[in-house]
Amino acid sequence: MTTVTYQDVVAAAGRIEGHVLRTPVLEISPGLFLKLEQLQHAGSFKVRGAFNRLLSAGNAPASGVIAASGGNHGLAVAYAARALGIRAEIFVPTVTSPVKVAGIRALGAVIRQTGAIYSEAAEAAAKRAAETGALQVHAYDQPEVVAGQGTTGLEIMAQTGVDTIVVAVGGGGFAAGITLGTRPDGARSDGPHSDGARSSGGQAGGTSYGGPRIVAVEPELSPTLHSALRAGRPVPVEVSGVAADALGASQLGDLAYGILSRPGVESVLVPDDAIVAARRTLWDRHRVVAEHAGATAYAALLAGAYTPAEGERIAVVVCGSNTDVTTLANPGT
Question: Which residues contact 258 (CB under 8 A, 6 or more apart)?
């Protein structure tokens, strides 16, 4: 069985140093921090995993690299490939926003838009990789990708030392990586949640899980982790909603399930209107530009899906900014 460890995250941090940014944190109220990962190269955390995968693989084949993406992963792979002088071919579904399609093309990648949702684009990408021998860079279910994303967790703890990290979930690779990157002693090995998906209030101070609590936030219309925890395994879900172009995986990754089903991870859901409101609030109050997926974690606090305890120190990850900025001035968009 493939595993990813804290040591893998530390190794990834050394490997990608100089290729990615150490993004800042913003304390918007006492003990409440925003981790501004939307300021990362290519507009999201995804370049961390992309660089770690490409650098771990050594010399890329002549046919280059292939990735399937809702948009942000494609931007990240295109950015990393260009930086390393590698050809990139990116498959995206028709739901991908024009902003992200244009960005991938501007980075010099060959772009193929096919399928209605991410999973259909992923099937096409896998078929193309088998034909060409190109190196595949999975959006979330690949050890090197998970380890690379986990470097965000290392930074958060070094910058803030919080009790709780609130992060959005699509395929689960980012939340899984952060979980690993904040637990140098590992999580307890007493197995996954016994009662399915959980949601509870916070508590100040540390946990018994070797690191901070992870609050994993998903749109109600794309509940991959929530459904997996209830079923006891990753299961297909219907995907729709305002954040579907970035949180549109139709099934949680196996690697992510193995990590996020352990104690110390809370799964909460938020409706689309809360995500829209959170995105607008980030802009109105803090002048933070985020796409809907990037604001999903913050929505959990604003909507009361997660209620912190008194004195609890929290980091909320703003994970993406690839959006049409003109819509920030329009309520309800």
Answer: 1, 3, 176
Per-residue pLDDT of 126-174, as tens digits, reads 999 999 999 999 999 999 999 999 999 999 999 999 999 999 999 999 9
Return the CATH number at 114: 3.40.50.1100
pLDDT digits (tens, 9 = 90+) for 102-131: 999 999 999 999 998 888 999 999 999 999
Amino acid at 41: H
Asked whether the beta carbons of 162 and 27 are under 8 A apart, the reply is no
Query: Which tokens belong to 81?
Result: 């490939």
**Predicted model pTM:** 0.91
Place of tokens 């946990």: 207
> Following DSSP, what letter does each residue of 240-261 receive, concatenated?
-STTTTTS--SS--HHHHHHHT
According to DSSP, the residues that pair with 66 across neighbouring strands are 89, 136
> How far, rounded to the nearest angstrom, does the alpha carbon of residue 30 sit from its chain's CA centroid?
25
For residue 236, count CB atoms less than 10 angstroms from its CB and return exposed for 0-12, middle for 13-18, buried for 19 or more.
exposed
Same domain for 164 and 54? no
